[in-house]
């Protein structure tokens, strides 16, 4: 049913320029075990099939890519930029996300290096009106210590940074505070996931907020 609706939208809507280029940066540092990694990629894949998200991805011809990151010198574009021009393209992207192999294991958390690696990737999608880095992580920066510099560079280049902070269960939120104070750009936001099991909900909420911007 969704495939038919989405295909109808693509066939009947006039051609539109790319509204958003969204780079999804996934933490695969040493604190993320095999099961937690699976929750991240499967949660993201499921979120891309949410009808409201899928509809706007196709309507706005959103460009998507996936980056995996961990410690110093450990960043890899595991899925390069792809335009969501049809339901078939979206299905293929979603299936690829769901089966992504892990690029790195057992390393530190170099958030600044991940952002610095992500920023020049947007040169390939210069026609997109908005440029957004969607970064997830379960710990503060403990290697490189360049996050402030990277955030400043992103702001100069008009790139928005939003975050999912993966917290332990409980009331405290040190990871959320780190991402809010040091990572997101001026107009960015942080969504908190209480443990990796909450990640699927958090990524759906985050994508909806990024892609379906409130008016006014």
Report on the architecture of this protein.
- With 216 residues, the chain is an alpha/beta fold.
- It has a single domain, classed as Rossmann fold, CATH 3.40.50.
- Helix content is 41%, strand content 21%.
- It contains eight helices and six strands.
- It has a six-stranded mixed β-sheet, with helices on both faces.
- Helix 1 runs parallel beside helix 3 (51-59).
- The radius of gyration is 16 Å and the shape is globular.
- The N and C termini lie far apart (33 Å).
SSE order and pairing:
Blueprint: H1 2-12, E1 20-27, H2 34-48, H3 51-59, E2 63-69, E3 75-83, H4 87-98, H5 111-118, E4 130-137, H6 147-156, E5 159-167, H7 174-183, E6 190-194, H8 199-211
Parallel strand pairs: 1-2, 1-4, 4-5, 5-6
Antiparallel strand pairs: 2-3
Helix pairs in contact: 1-3, 2-4, 2-8, 3-8, 5-6
């Amino acid at each position: 049913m969704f495939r038919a609706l989405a295909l109808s939208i693509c066939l009947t809507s006039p051609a539109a320029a790319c509204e958003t280029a969204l780079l999804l940066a996934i933490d695969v540092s040493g604190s993320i075990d095999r099961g937690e990694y699976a929750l991240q990629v499967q949660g993201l894949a499921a979120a891309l099939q949410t009808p409201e998200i899928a509809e706007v991805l196709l309507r706005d011809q959103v460009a998507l890519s996936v980056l995996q990151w961990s410690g110093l010198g450990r960043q890899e574009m595991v899925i390069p930029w792809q335009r969501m021009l049809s339901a078939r393209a979206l299905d293929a992207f979603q299936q690829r996300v769901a089966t992504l192999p892990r690029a790195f294991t057992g390393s530190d958390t170099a958030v600044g290096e991940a952002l610095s690696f992500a920023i020049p990737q947007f040169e390939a999608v210069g026609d997109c009106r908005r440029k957004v880095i969607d970064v997830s992580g379960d710990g503060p920066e403990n290697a490189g210590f360049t996050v402030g510099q990277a955030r400043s560079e992103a702001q100069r280049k008009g790139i928005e940074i939003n975050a999912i902070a993966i917290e332990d269960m409980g009331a405290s939120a040190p990871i959320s505070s780190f991402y809010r104070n040091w990572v997101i750009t001026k107009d960015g936001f942080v969504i908190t996931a209480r443990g990796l099991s909450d990640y699927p909900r958090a990524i759906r909420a985050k994508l909806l907020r990024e892609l379906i911007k409130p008016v006014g």
